[in-house]
Amino acid sequence: MERLTILFFSLILTISAFAQNNRYKIAMQKAVGELQAAEQSRDFTAPANTFERIAAAAPGDEWLPAYYQAYCHIMQAVGAMQQGKPEQITAYLEKSQGALDIAKAISPENSEIMALQGYIYTGHIWADPMGNGPMYSPQSMVAYQTAIETGPDHPRGYHLLGMHLLYMPAIYGGGPERALKYLKQAEERFASFEPVSELHPNWGGYFNKQLLEQAAAKLEKEEN
Amino acid sequence: MKPTLLLAVLLILTSTLYGQTVLTGQVLTGKTEPAVGANLYIKGSFDGTSTDADGQFYLPCLPGDSLVLVVSYIGFEQVEQLLPVGKDSLWLEFRLKPQANELQQVVISAGAFEASDEKKAVMLRPIDIVTTAGSNGNIVAALNTLPGTQSNAEDGRIFVRGGDAHETQTFIDGLRVPNPYTSNVPDLPVRGRFSPFLFKGTSFSTGGYSAAYGDALSSALVLQTKDLPEASVTSLSLMTIGAAASHTERWENSAISAGVDYTNLGPYTSLVPQNIDWEDPVSAQGAQIGFRQKMSNGAMLKAQANAQWSGFSMRYPSPQNPTERSLLSLQNDNYYGSTTYHHLVNEKWQLDAGLAGGYDREQIDQNFTVDRLNAMLQGRAVAIRYFENDWALKLGTEWIQSSFDEHYQEAETDIQSAFQEDYLSAFAETEGYIGEKVALRAGLRAERYALLDANRLSPRLSLAYKTGQAGQVALAYGHFYQAPQQDWLRYTQALTPERADHYLLNYQYRKGGRTIRAEVYHKEYHNLVQFPVGAPWLADNSGDGYARGLDLFYRDRVSIPNGDFWVSYSYLDTERRYEDYPVAATPDFAARHNLSVVYKHWIQDWQTSLGMTYTLGSPRPYDDPNTSRFNDLQTPTYQDLSLNLSYLTELFGHFTIVHASVSNVLGFEQAFGERFGNQPDANGRFTSTAIRPPAPRFFFVGVFVSMGEGSTFSN
Fold first, then answer.
1. What is the pLDDT of residues B401-446, one digit of tens each?
2. Cβ-Cβ contacts under 8 Å, B45 against chain A
3. Residue B484 phi/psi, 5° resolution?
4. Mode of pairing for the β-strands spanning B621-622 and B633-634
5. Are A57 and B714 inside 8 Å of each other by CB?
6. Does B84 touch chain A (CB under 8 A)?
């Protein structure tokens, strides 16, 4: 009898854990869908909010919700940059940093997270190129390099470093020629990249193609 | 047992199917502004919603024992609300409070000018100091464009609000620097010894400063050295007046840097006309080493040492008869080393400790010789307790031992003077907020001047009140003591510390890249050292004085695209009876009106930054000992326009800055009165010579190359 009770309890626990995990998966699938839609509409409010909710309630060993939340806020910062609102850039990036810190604590030495860290640093330069550039530019380069070292097969470290270099003046060590090298390496890796699961990061391939074209055009212009 | 359990499981299951609560409502920021895209969710659940364009929301949710609704919105404080149980529908309205943003927070502002990379609520960034035209990498020259200061170009030191230059003390990482300026003879301007690139933060107080610092009547210049550098880098500079090289090696948790520099004005002075008759123009050698270690407990250990050897010789006015010039040589050896430990132990405690030592030897040879030694040793420890309600209590103590040893020889005169000062202090200071609108800092400092056998207690108070979104009013009050200068202590030690009382009232308005600041102040001097003309051994503390005035500051980073400027104006009314003044008079270092305009412009297409600094100082009084009246002559108005240009480029793939600057572009006639002899000539008259700048203009060209992180990506 006692044994049965124990069995029964452990069954309930397993089921509820399973249900919980399943609910997490379903919520994540839905959120990743929202994110894909946002990549088209460029309004990242909905996925940012959804990932924030999942991150707040997710099992403690899942780094993806906080990672995606951080990513969405960076995209919101990109939007603020395009609208010329430097104060908003900083607000989004600070929120993004808070989320990424949680992801980092769950999964240290994660190449994808390091790449995103570099992205946040790059973002701070948009808010105030003169004031923030000297401090954040080296920090972002170090973050991208760490991302590449930790995950040499992951495309996003190369992709973001290429983007950073493309928009960085040549005199600071940037420019299309240096950017191209990394964008091309990213391109190779995007072509063969298989995400760990359908929920794992798989973004950047399309934008990398655009950057490659931009870099090539810039280089041609420079050479003429 | 089993049936009850089953029942419970069933209950849970059914409750998830029935009894849904529907939440609707609106989220606002301020009174009517809708929060668009705010996040609403039940704590612990994946489900939630975002507000629409009107800030409204609709959220069906499952009931539980205690449901907590979370409202989160960027830039605003997160709200968590407990929902009542057993209702079918609920209408909720939220008015979000803006997140306590550093920029909008009330800050202690009276008397304070801060430059920092880390804090946002500052008026200056360290880069602003470096790029100020006319400063040529001299922190002090850049600070002299701020209100409350004087541009006494023949001296070079900082004069704050009617205070003499020695009334400002310099602190690096909390430790006092005994000789912050390069060594020189009167009427030749000095420079700050420390490169502005060493510091991540500069806090310059023109009055009412914190109880954490002392022994300065007027002002504290507090510099904070950088932590771990971002990356390894090698720097080379080649300048018209010398060359420098340094290397920094960065490991994961530590860094070592070493550098050497060499300055020689010889080639330059032979090319550019000089007012000075140089024999051996200034030459100097310097060496620096630094060490940083981030310890496993998170603490930061810093150690650094500097050595500088400099000297020159020139034909210089004789003290007795300035119309006659004779060969003068000066040799200075300066060493300073410090080590500091900074540890944020936990959320409640922070510990800071430091040790420093300094040694300075100055040898002057004219028709007399002076051999002066200054040595200093000090220790400092500060503990800070942070409380949950944003209050902090700072407790600290410091000990500074300075020794002075001078040997003066002239013909038959041979004077040796030596003494040692021990300065001990302890302070307690609390800082925090009362509500959202009031910031308060209150401190008490106890000081012991062992040589003078004097104990002093000084209260300090600073208060700020936020008047609106962008404006705030602040006031400060405090007592400040300082030991008499070594120049007088060598004659007599029957003296007491000098005292100044500060009263400051400040208004500040900052919004979107613009800052307006106005400050009025009153400073009372007591117990100033006073003695009959030519008899400093009879000195006592019977002198006194006052300084009062108005400082205005306007900084604008947004009105001109790619342009940034600030304007400082200071009005000063001051008189004092001190040293050998026979009557209360405006001292010769004090100008009634001072104006600085600093402009910087960035030209993206040329990768070039242009800077301009215009300075104006109204006439200053000086004394002619041949007349019966005191300080009755006036210097002409001082004006200067300096320009600089920095061109960013690449040299062999390395980041390179080409920097050029020139002072007094418009060729203003610059003069600083006359220097009189200390003895009358055969006819009973004091002869004099005009005090002029070392050269009508100063040109500077330098190339700075840095090889490091940026170039590691280029191959």
1. 999 999 999 888 899 999 999 999 999 999 999 888 899 999 999 9
2. 53, 57
3. -60, 155
4. antiparallel
5. no
6. no
A46 interface with B at CB cutoff 8 Å: yes
- Min Cα–Cα distance to chain B from A195, Å: 24
Q: Which residues of B touch A173 (CB under 8 A)?
A: 655, 709-711, 713-714
Q: Phi first, then psi: what are they for B648, rounded to 5°? A: -95, 125
Closest Cα in chain B, distance from residue A79 (Å): 14
First-to-last CA distance in chain B? 74
Residue A1 forms contact with B (CB below 8 Å)? no
Best mutation target, B5, B42, B46, B80, to test chain A (most A CBs within 10 A): B46
Q: What's the rounded Cα separation, in Å, for the pair B178 and B361?
A: 12
Residues paired with residue A200 on neighbouring β-strands, in sequence order: none
Cβ atoms < 10 Å from Cβ of B374 = 18
List, by residue range, all CATH 2.40.170.20 domains of chain B: 112-712
How far does the CA of residue B132 sit from the closest CA of chain A (Å)?
Answer: 15
Cα radius of gyration rounded to whole Å, chain A: 20
Q: What is the ipTM of this complex?
A: 0.84
Q: Under CATH, which number does the domain B112-712 receive?
A: 2.40.170.20
Instruction: Please check whether residue A130 touches B, CB under 8 A.
Output: yes
Interatomic CA distance for residues B356 and B400, integer angstroms: 9
B75 → closest Cβ in A58, A91, A178? A91
B306's CB contacts (< 8 A; 6+ apart) are B193, B194, B286, B287, B288, B334, B335, B336, B337
The class of domain B19-96 in CATH terms is mainly beta
Identify all chain A residues contacting B47, using CB atoms and an 8 Å cutoff: 27, 53
For B272, residues 6+ apart whose C-beta sits below 8 A from its C-beta are B695, B697, B698, B699
Sign of the dihedral through C-alpha B142, B148, B151, B152 = negative
Q: Indicate the residue of B44, B125, B650 with minimum beta-carbon distance to A170.
A: B650
Cβ-defined contact of B1 to A91 (cutoff 8 Å): no
Q: Whose structure tokens read 């170090």? A: A142
pLDDT given for residue B8 in this prediction: 53
Phi, psi torsion values for B76, nearest 5 degrees = -130, 155
Residue B371's alpha-carbon distances to B143, B332, B404, B543, B633, in angstroms, are: 32, 10, 11, 30, 34
Beta carbons of A171 and B74 less than 8 Å apart: no
State pLDDT tens for residues B678-704. 888 888 899 999 998 888 899 999 998
Question: DSSP letter string over A29-60?
Answer: HHHHHHHHHHHHH---HHHHHHHHHHHHHS-T
Three-state secondary-structure class, residue A220: helix
Question: Is the separation of the CB atoms in B184 and B453 below 8 Å?
Answer: no
Single pTM value for the model: 0.80
Q: Are B659 and B701 in contact (CB under 8 A)?
A: yes
Tell me whether residues B655 and A92 touch, CB distance under 8 A.
no
